[in-house]
Amino acid sequence: MRVAIAGAGLGGLCLAQGLRRAGIEADVYERDPAITARFQGYRLVLSPTGSAALRGCLPQRWHPLLDAITGDAYGERLVLDPWLNKIGELGPGRTGTVIDRHVLRHLLLTGLAVHTGATLTGYDVLDDGRVEARFAHGDPVVADLLVGADGVGSAVRAVLSPQTTPTDTGVRFVIGRTPLTEHFAGLERAFGSKIAGDGVSLLLGAMRFRTPPKEAAEELAPEVVLPDVRDYVRWAMILPPDGSRGDVTPQETVLSRIEGWHPDLRALIEQSDPDNSTLLSIRVVEPREHWAPGPVTLLGDAIHATSPTGGNGANTALRDADLLRHCLTEGRRDLLGAIGDYERQMFEYGAEAVRQSLDALTAFVPQSESA
Ligand SMILES: Cc1cc2nc3c(=O)[nH]c(=O)nc-3n(C[C@H](O)[C@H](O)[C@H](O)COP(=O)(O)OP(=O)(O)OC[C@H]3O[C@@H](n4cnc5c(N)ncnc54)[C@H](O)[C@@H]3O)c2cc1C
């Protein structure tokens, strides 16, 4: 069986690893001109489900490396004022481990055939039941199965389910990171908490690697080359609807909104890495329309994009990858039976993940300034 995967994000790469482990050929086609072409280095919280799915797809010999490059998710989950005084509690939160997305992506890329600069533009199902994928440049590719793991704006979804389209929540947020120095370790109480004031929320999270990823790979799995990333603080500011401006940098956006806040919070933003901060919009995709199983399917954000406040987008994409791997490789079903099994389960938990993330969004979004 030949599988073509559109999108070298977490879900697509995880599936490719899982299929490779089972001896199935899978080629990945990625739109970006290079793997490091844009900011992708934020911190993710892996839930027990997401971790188990990831392990299910990765070769067992990399599991110790995975343990070494994750950290514990912890935090008091408080609500703090701009001077870091406690004013409330966020309530029980997610448990699991934290991992850097850029590092995880490098681990997932190891040993895979990834074609970069390959923008999928459409596909046709052929008379023999296979599928031909077309790209903006280069020759088409014929495969037994095409998996659209091409994110929230999925080109595969646009053909398979044109009625399923992303909804813009209107919420924007700025995200960045700053090296975790001894000085910023003093902000411990704010890690995992929400700092609220002046109509905005600032969220901090520490990424502490048990072992620096590059060194861990050299020691535990020399065939894996991981980036040299050190501990950092991830910060994110959720803006009120219409609260973003296009003519200032992400740091300036945040600094202009935290005047008079605790000096360590301002210093944290001032000392952030300008290449690793960006303004993002929150769009969701709700899986509603079911289609008859065929040689084309979707996974991850392409079919159930969540708000990052739910902390479940990557976990659900990894779960899809492991489930699809399982359906394709275990049991004795034909291809369409396997895809049908996968889609039935994925639709159910995918829709639930989107619902949960939208519920969580309301706790973090400040009121519109024009309201
Ligand atoms: C700031 C932030 C924090 C987050 N924190 C968490 C968290 O703590 N926990 C969690 O579970 N989730 C989190 N998420 C969500 C998570 O990152 C995503 O849900 C996850 O990356 C989805 O994986 P994916 O493989 O479906 O899509 P993506 O990772 O978006 O990958 C899609 C890939 O497809 C490529 N592509 C797009 N179009 C085409 C095309 N036409 N042809 C070829 N390639 C194409 C893209 O370039 C991209 O590489 C967070 C997201 C953000 C933005």
From TrEMBL:
One GO MF term: monooxygenase activity
Cross-referenced InterPro entries: FAD-bd, FAD/NAD-bd_sf
Annotated Gene3D superfamilies: FAD/NAD(P)-binding domain
Statement: the UniProt record of this protein carries the keyword Zinc: no
Ranges for domain FAD-binding: 105-328
Keyword Oxidoreductase attributed: yes
Organism domain of life: Bacteria
Classification via PANTHER family: FAD-BINDING DOMAIN-CONTAINING PROTEIN, MONOOXYGENASE, FAD-BINDING
The protein, known as: 2-polyprenyl-6-methoxyphenol hydroxylase
Originating species: Streptoalloteichus hindustanus
